[in-house]
Structure to design on (1125 residues):
């Protein structure tokens, strides 16, 4: 009797609870709430905020809220107008005319004009700026101001990815004329048009506030943004769990972190395939590696799928020269690429033919990428099967950079940042004169395809050229493309409207709001 | 006494000079330079690097670079960080309060636990006390700080919710919140040091207890409390304070691992970052700053001896 | 025979004998010595007793809990934790012993020289002060960065960091003995400085140095683990206990075994050194000074 009544009460409570739950989303469906500060945790140090000079991942994740380009990528990596409202391209692909959005305000209240655009590009091109972005704009012959809201850029030769380049903010971001005179030291002071402006640059954090006159009506929703460095990944995860930060991503937020949060309520894991790829860099001029058969043997000896299972718990794609995530460029699957199907016997055979049955060399993992050391260990173990003795050679970051720059290595493991556009993705690494061709790879056929690819304007023709290039690269093995891993962000459930881009960009913060 | 203090402080000058020369030579021995680090893996073309190096003055011969640096320092200008372009003194002063507070807090916790513990272990024959002492010192000495720190975070912050993890408001603004926020890192720093201090305290107390005058005091039938406090502890303090002073000196240099685990922006992390990034001016300044701190702490310790044992005189 | 010995050598011999006898009667000392003996034999015979190669990966069985196949489970790569601990002892003890030995040789000789030759005292001890004033871990990191990470640079780094401790310990007995009348006499009879140092000073300094060394050995094991945590200690895939703890720490949520067992292994070794050190300290009592924290 008594227990029956208890059951009835329990049933009623359940129904009530269900009703509340179902009603919940409707209550939340009122649309974005304004205000609040989003606190983001990352493991890397934030050092330099000069958009044209900084190179660090962490700097980019701060600057992308402050500086904008003429174009931008949306969350699906399609090109969208940003500071330029519209543009035209001449039939020969050499003249680009951009019409600027009117009434765009910098954080100091001044208005964006064509002068600022010209100044920004000239600042990047000026050797005294020492901008690593310079090579991206080198094809510019002339920048003309047509009127305060129109600017014309003439190129020395057609350059198919030019529009994509214009979306590479903050690196190719727009700053006001006389930028340096206005801000003083651009490494620590900023002045842009972006949705947030810099308020405080602390010892291990950056505090940004809403730009009240942002050109896109109603955005951003947040009043503020705090990006702080928590160097230890275990502590970073703990700080998210205790609610001291709302969102974590970047190095140290990987598949194991995602696993730790998967079962917990109040948290959401976001993950998507990345454009960056891990690679085994090879010094092509070293005696053994001059022989393409040895490079092919390396590619055949390494079981990329097993490597992915171990290092990324399967959350990565075996990838060739183009990112599998960007379907429109028709990346070839591993089965269609030469030297991608592991084959120990063939690898041994090739080594034998090349006279390197007893090959030994060193692998230098980049110390700032946590997965690099794991990858090196797995490769070391896998290479034993074909009789190659690989020794792991750990060095600190500055030493790595110096030796990387001077091509002073046998092989190294690192991560190359990726792009949707194949020329941006490949050119500087594999072109014989490329700015980051530290591999000393020199293949005239590759050079020819690259050159043809960047000067051809027809999309379909370009897809065919890059298909040929993918095969060529897989066959010639300038270095080993290993894996395109998934990237992760973990956030509290009350953080809404946030999206991670495959480039690891978090520009979507301008549309993010807090449901509190 | 004054002349002694002045002499000791004057000794700082040659020490600082030697330290600066050593640091300068060492850091230039290491491969890699700040210009290379600044460029990262973005661009490998040599022209860019050359321009950057010459703008940072890195293309000049080493001894010229050192002379230029020394000249500026003598004028009171410690220079600017290569990476952030900010004055290094500003960066140091921004971070020193974190290190200072952590050091004082940890020392306090360690002393409060270690000295009674060591004294008890030396003066009683209780098995329980001995086992407690052994366990504590073993735990303290055998647990790496990166491990115990993580465990404390998981237990006390994540599961029990007693302490925040990365919340360090200035003491003046919110003293209680500040003490709460710094508690776990201070505890992590305190534990191994407390273990070392407790062992030292035990050994010192044991040693003093066997001195004739203590035996005499006991023979006179003085109450044990008076014997322990007036006769033993006071004299055992000298070696204990030496150790506390050494530890204090180290902690002022920053506790690299604990700062890393607890995300505290202190001097320790600043110094490691400056080595990793080859930020020469910054590293120089941090090391000099820490050396001055160390020498001053040692001086204070030596002066403390005088108060503890009037027989010691410095002249 | 005994006539040929100096006073200090006799003191040293009786002291050493007394220590040894004391140790055998002292429960702590005996326990510590037995524990260390066991650990050292494990480390020494690692290739014979380890069930697996410590670097072989079993990807299908990663993060295994302890089973009959893997007695202490497996780590991130599916490597056998037990085998890695056995080899890890080897690395960790090798690094600890070599680095402390380096510090004893370097610091000990500098200390004796400083105590014995008056004109060397100021330069040596001031140099030690400068070394002492450097932040310990920063000094070690800098050394490792210069030489590149690896066992050898870890040994050098820890050895140099510990040098001033032994310099201070060795100087005191040297100072004390030097002033004795019979030393003056010995020198008057034509004994060279080196002979005096070898026969009078070294025996006097040996015991306190030895005791301090047992304590620093424990600290060196921890120090090595701190360097490994920063990525600057022992380099993978070679196992060291500290490296195992710090590697496993990143995957605590997935498997506690990869860090708890090596952590316990460190604790055992440290316990051994501590017990032995404590016992020696008790037996020797008044002689100890100046232990370095950190």
């Amino acid at each position: 009797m008594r227990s029956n009544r208890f059951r009835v009460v329990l049933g009623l409570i359940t129904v009530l609870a269900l009703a509340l739950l179902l009603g919940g989303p409707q209550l939340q469906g009122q649309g974005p709430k304004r205000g609040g500060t989003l606190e983001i945790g990352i493991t890397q140090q934030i050092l330099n905020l000069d958009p044209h000079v900084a190179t660090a991942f962490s700097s980019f994740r701060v600057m992308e809220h402050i500086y904008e380009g003429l174009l931008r990528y949306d969350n699906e990596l399609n090109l969208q107008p940003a500071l330029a409202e519209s543009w035209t391209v001449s039939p020969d692909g050499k003249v680009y005319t951009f019409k600027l959005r009117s009434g765009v305000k910098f954080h100091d209240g001044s208005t964006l004009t064509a002068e600022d655009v010209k100044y920004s590009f000239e600042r990047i091109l000026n050797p005294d700026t020492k901008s690593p972005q310079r090579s991206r704009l080198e094809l510019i012959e002339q920048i003309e101001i047509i009127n305060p809201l129109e600017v014309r850029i003439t190129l020395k030769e057609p350059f198919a990815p030019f529009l994509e380049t214009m979306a590479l903010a903050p690196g190719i971001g727009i700053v006001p004329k006389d930028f340096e005179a206005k801000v003083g030291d651009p490494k620590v002071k900023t002045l842009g048009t972006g949705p947030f402006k810099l308020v405080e640059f602390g010892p291990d954090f950056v505090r940004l506030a809403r730009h009240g006159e942002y050109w896109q009506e109603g955005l951003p929703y947040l009043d503020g943004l705090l990006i702080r460095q928590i160097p230890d990944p275990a502590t970073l995860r703990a700080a998210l769990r205790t609610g001291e930060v709302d969102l974590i991503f970047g190095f140290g937020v990987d598949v194991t972190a995602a696993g730790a949060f998967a079962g917990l309520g109040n948290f959401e894991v976001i993950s998507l395939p990345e454009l960056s790829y891990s690679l085994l860099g090879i010094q092509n001029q070293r005696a053994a590696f001059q022989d393409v058969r040895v490079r092919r043997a390396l590619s055949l000896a390494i079981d990329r799928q097993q490597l992915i299972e171990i290092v990324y718990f399967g959350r990565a794609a075996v990838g060739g020269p183009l990112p599998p995530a960007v379907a429109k460029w028709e990346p070839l699957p591993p089965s269609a690429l030469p030297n991608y199907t592991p084959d120990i016997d063939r690898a041994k055979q090739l080594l034998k033919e090349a006279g390197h049955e007893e090959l030994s060399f060193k692998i230098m993992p980049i110390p700032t990428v946590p997965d690099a050391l794991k990858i090196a260990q797995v490769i070391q173990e896998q290479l034993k099967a074909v009789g190659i003795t690989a020794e792991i050679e750990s060095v600190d970051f500055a030493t790595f950079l110096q030796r990387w720059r001077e091509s002073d290595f046998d092989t190294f493991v690192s991560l190359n940042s990726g792009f949707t556009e194949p020329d941006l993705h490949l050119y500087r690494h594999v072109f014989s004169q490329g700015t980051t061709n530290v591999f000393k790879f020199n293949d005239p056929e590759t050079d020819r395809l690259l050159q043809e690819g960047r000067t051809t304007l027809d999309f379909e023709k370009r897809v065919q050229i890059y298909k040929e290039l993918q095969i060529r690269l897989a066959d010639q093995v300038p270095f080993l493309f290993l894996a395109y891993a998934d990237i992760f962000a973990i956030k509290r459930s009350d953080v809404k409207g946030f999206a991670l881009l495959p480039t690891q960009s978090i520009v979507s913060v301008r549309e993010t709001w807090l449901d509190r | 006494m004054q002349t002694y203090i002045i002499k000791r402080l004057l000794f700082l000058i040659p020490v600082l000079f030697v330290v600066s020369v050593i640091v300068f030579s060492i850091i230039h021995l290491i491969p890699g330079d700040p210009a290379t680090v600044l460029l990262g893996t973005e661009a490998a073309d040599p022209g860019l690097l050359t321009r950057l190096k010459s703008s940072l003055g890195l293309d000049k011969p080493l001894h010229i670079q050192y002379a230029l640096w020394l000249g500026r320092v003598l004028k009171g200008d410690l220079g600017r960080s290569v990476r952030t372009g900010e004055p290094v003194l500003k960066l140091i002063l921004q971070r020193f309060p974190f290190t200072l507070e952590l050091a004082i807090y940890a020392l306090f916790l360690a002393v409060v636990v270690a000295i009674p513990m060591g004294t008890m272990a030396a003066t009683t024959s209780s098995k329980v006390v001995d086992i407690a002492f052994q366990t504590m010192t073993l735990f303290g000495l055998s647990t790496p700080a990166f491990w115990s720190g993580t465990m404390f975070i998981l237990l006390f912050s994540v599961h029990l919710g007693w302490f925040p993890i990365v919340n360090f408001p200035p003491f003046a603004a919110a003293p209680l919140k500040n003490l709460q926020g710094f508690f776990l890192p201070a505890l992590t720093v305190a534990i191994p040091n407390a273990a070392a201090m407790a062992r030292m305290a035990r050994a010192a107390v044991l040693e003093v207890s066997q001195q004739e005058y203590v035996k005499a005091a006991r023979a006179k039938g003085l109450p044990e409390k008076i014997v322990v406090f007036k006769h033993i502890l006071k004299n055992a303090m000298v070696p204990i304070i030496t150790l506390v002073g050494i530890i204090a000196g180290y902690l002022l240099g920053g506790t690299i691992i604990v700062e890393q685990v607890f995300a505290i922006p202190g001097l320790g992390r600043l110094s490691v970052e400056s080595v990793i990034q080859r930020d020469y001016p910054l590293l120089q300044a941090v090391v000099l700053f820490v050396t001055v701190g160390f020498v001053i702490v040692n001086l204070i310790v030596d002066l403390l001896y005088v108060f503890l044992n009037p027989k010691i005189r410095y002249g | 025979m005994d006539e040929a010995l100096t006073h200090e050598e006799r003191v040293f011999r009786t002291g050493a004998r007394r220590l040894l006898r004391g140790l055998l009667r002292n429960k702590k000392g005996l326990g510590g010595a037995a524990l260390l003996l066991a650990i050292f034999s494990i480390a020494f015979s690692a290739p014979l007793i380890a069930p697996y190669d410590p670097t072989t990966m079993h990807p299908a069985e990663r993060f295994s809990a302890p089973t009959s196949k893997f007695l202490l489970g497996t780590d991130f790569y599916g490597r056998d934790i037990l085998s890695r601990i056995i080899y890890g002892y080897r690395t960790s003890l090798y690094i600890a012993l070599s680095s402390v030995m380096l510090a004893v040789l370097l610091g000990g000789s500098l200390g004796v020289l400083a105590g014995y030759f008056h004109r060397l005292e100021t330069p040596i001890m001031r140099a030690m002060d400068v070394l002492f004033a450097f932040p310990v871990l920063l000094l070690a990191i800098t050394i490792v960065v210069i030489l590149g990470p690896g066992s050898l640079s870890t040994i050098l780094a820890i050895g140099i960091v510990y040098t001033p401790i032994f310099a201070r310990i060795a100087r005191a007995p040297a100072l004390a003995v030097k002033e004795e009348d019979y030393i003056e006499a010995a020198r008057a009879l034509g004994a060279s400085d080196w002979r005096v140092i070898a026969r009078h000073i070294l025996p006097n300094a040996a015991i306190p140095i030895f005791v301090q060394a047992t304590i620093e050995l424990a600290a060196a094991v921890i120090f090595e683990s701190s360097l490994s945590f920063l990525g600057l200690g022992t380099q993978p895939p070679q196992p060291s206990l500290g490296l195992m703890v710090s590697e496993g720490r990143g995957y605590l949520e997935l498997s506690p075994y990869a860090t708890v067992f090596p952590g316990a292994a460190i604790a055992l070794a440290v316990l051994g050194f501590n017990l032995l050190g404590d016992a020696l300290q008790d037996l020797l009592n008044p002689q100890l000074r100046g232990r370095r924290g950190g």
Observations:
- The two ends of chain B are 6 Å apart (CA to CA).
